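Weekly sync notes, structure subgroup
Attendees: PM, AL, DS (notes)

Item 1: joint prediction request from the bench team. They want all six components modeled as one assembly rather than separately. Inputs as received:
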Amino acid sequence: MFSVTVRDHMLIAHSLRGEVFGPAQRLHGATYVVDATFRRATLDADGIVVDIGHAADLLRSVLSELGYRNLDDEAELAEMNTTTEALARVVADRLAGALGDAAQDLDGLVVTLHESHVAWASYERQL
Amino acid sequence: MFSVTVRDHMLIAHSLRGEVFGPAQRLHGATYVVDATFRRATLDADGIVVDIGHAADLLRSVLSELGYRNLDDEAELAEMNTTTEALARVVADRLAGALGDAAQDLDGLVVTLHESHVAWASYERQL
Amino acid sequence: MFSVTVRDHMLIAHSLRGEVFGPAQRLHGATYVVDATFRRATLDADGIVVDIGHAADLLRSVLSELGYRNLDDEAELAEMNTTTEALARVVADRLAGALGDAAQDLDGLVVTLHESHVAWASYERQL
Amino acid sequence: MFSVTVRDHMLIAHSLRGEVFGPAQRLHGATYVVDATFRRATLDADGIVVDIGHAADLLRSVLSELGYRNLDDEAELAEMNTTTEALARVVADRLAGALGDAAQDLDGLVVTLHESHVAWASYERQL
Amino acid sequence: MFSVTVRDHMLIAHSLRGEVFGPAQRLHGATYVVDATFRRATLDADGIVVDIGHAADLLRSVLSELGYRNLDDEAELAEMNTTTEALARVVADRLAGALGDAAQDLDGLVVTLHESHVAWASYERQL
Amino acid sequence: MFSVTVRDHMLIAHSLRGEVFGPAQRLHGATYVVDATFRRATLDADGIVVDIGHAADLLRSVLSELGYRNLDDEAELAEMNTTTEALARVVADRLAGALGDAAQDLDGLVVTLHESHVAWASYERQL
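Output from the run, pasted for the record:
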């Protein structure tokens, strides 16, 4: 199995609902350094998993719809707690959608959001 | 599949038994930067894999029983060579025990011990 | 010259005032991974620049007054743009104050705030 | 499952064939920081996955046959595009060969080539 | 003193002239992860050292004139050995030129080129 | 001013004397990831600060005299507390000695010992 990973980041504000979150129930924010990993059993005719420049552009596009925003105000995220692990799925699912037909050649996708040097979360899905 | 990882570290002394270890048969030591990854198929009602603060506390607690010690003197480790990979299992198994009932909601655990910028070892187990 | 550095982090929300900031004029947030470096020409009787545990506690204390907050609502920061470089000075100055008499033995302080894997800012001052 | 990883690097020149590669069709080069991960279900009598010094020597040996070279001139690579993902397989397969009989005790091998701080590729195979 | 640093990278081929370089006399290549640090004694009216987006664009522009090339073929570099330390000066000097009048507000510039996880070089100059 | 840095590491056991060290008064150990930075105002005829391979060999040699040992048993270190900052000076001074006549061409030396992902210490000296 092959994989290719590209890294980018986004800066967001948000708050979390639930006593378990303690001070993170207050409005605060985070830098998420985001790794998107594309998996594929065999390489294509060019010898690649995915055009790495195209993959980076797709990730940039998905993150730019979330970045520099207060996620508490985003209608599409209103029903959920925007925890690191939940956002990893949002990014992965949007990235899968953005891949379009190219997703058919891929086997899976992993998105990891690093929220600090000591904590990160991932979501892995098939394509 | 979702996962959440927390990072901490411990400082220990030890020696290794066996010719394969060369100079590491002498008493020496290591900083282990430890990553504990908790895996779960679906998020809970709060939208999390595990309370990240609680996970960090559990890891801190497990590492504090090993850190600032000479592992050669620890009765519970007397039967084993405390290699990086073997210690990864010790930390994972103790962490699984410390999780208590919370382990039932999780699917797996991976513990990685980084012994330097050029070498690390992991142990992965189910919960 | 000797130095000792400790690393910690904080999660904040804020917005920046001025056209130069583009989309960062919107309410967003950041994780700042914060490095505090203490400089000293000679070591003390214990062979240290500063008690590293005490230094880490002081940094933790300073960051806990800023973290998990919307900096736009902090009265003490109302007059300023909370850019990464300006916050580096805020942290450094508060840390210098928190050091109390211990600052007399030190020669300088550098605080670096990493806002992502591709951008960071520092403020260096004497003690 | 246990794993042990060692890290090394190589410096190479190459060019890539195909319009998808844009400016990377020109002769350029890369530093590949290479992680080789050895997987094993149970530890051996010494409590290890593999002798980490031996593993590092094998990786060094494999990389030294590729490093400080223009890969466009290497006869064994003439049929392929030396993309990061394709080179990950070359390194993994050569490493598997270099392991010799020791491969029988191992369950798998993952080789990751980091081409920059924002892009990397992996190849995973059984042993 | 304040500073702001932005990170980017370039991929180049080159060879080095002189017996001291051993196998690096052959045509090979490198990824240089490049950090550009801008220093300034006081912040401007917006509370910044430099517009970080503008700084990143300038660095990108300077690196794009070197990246995806064989430096042995670049007329402007023909007189020199393109060692990591020498290239750090090339990048710093071109960046200083690209800053134009904005350089007058700055006090200094440091450019660091990371050639691997175990080696890097810097050049520091005034502005 | 130019600089070149090489990174290596050592694994040691030790204990620290003094109440300020708390649990670190017990025999424990550390991995020190060591960065040695060589400074020079102008490059030599080959376009380098120092032969990076030679610099790496010297650092390896200095660290091999300390690594895989219990520093409490080293006669040359008996008079001192082997704190991270004090060991940074030991490494720097031994490295300066090992440079021999080559030190005359250099302006300074900085040695940084990383004891974990959240703490490190440096010693800077002239040559």
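Discussion: Chain A has a mean pLDDT of 97.
Action: AL to compare against the crosslinking data before next sync.
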